[in-house]
Each structure stands twice: as structure tokens, then as C-alpha cells.
Design brief:
By secondary structure, the chain is an alpha+beta fold. About 10% of the residues lie in helices and about 20% in strands. It has one domain (about 1-50). The protein has two helices and four strands, in the order ββββαα.
Length: about 60
């Protein structure tokens, strides 16, 4: 998980995650495509998502 102050970046593509991330094996991803190692288009959608509460208590975990 890459985090600087209140900013979180995707461990797959590097986009700033402004929504609740998908967390798998301690890594944070912007979407399931990134989690699976595929290309995504989240960078194009980034402006459509307003910043969210960036508390470290994320709940969207994927079992591995």
C-alpha cells in the first residue's frame, strides 16, 4: 500500500484512489482489474469521484 499523508495510490496502476480501495494481501487497488494484473481505465474516471474520508479503516477486503 502506497500512502503519503492522506493520499492512497493503487499498487497496480498508480492512480490516486479517491474511493474505497480493494485490499488484497495488504496491497490496495483501485479496481478488480488492477488486482488481477490487468489494465484498467480508472485514471479516466478519477475526476468523477469526489475525495472520500481517507481513514485507514477500509472494509472492502478480498480473501486470497
Amino acid at each position: 500500500m502506497v500512502r503519503y499523508k492522506d493520499t492512497l495510490w493503487c499498487d497496480g496502476c498508480g492512480v490516486e484512489i479517491r474511493w474505497e480501495p480493494i485490499v488484497n494481501n495488504g496491497l490496495s487497488y483501485c479496481c478488480r482489474d488492477c488486482m488481477q494484473g490487468n489494465r484498467c481505465n480508472c485514471e479516466e474516471l478519477e475526476d468523477e469521484f469526489p475525495p472520500v474520508d481517507k481513514s485507514p479503516n477500509f472494509t472492502n477486503f478480498v480473501n486470497s
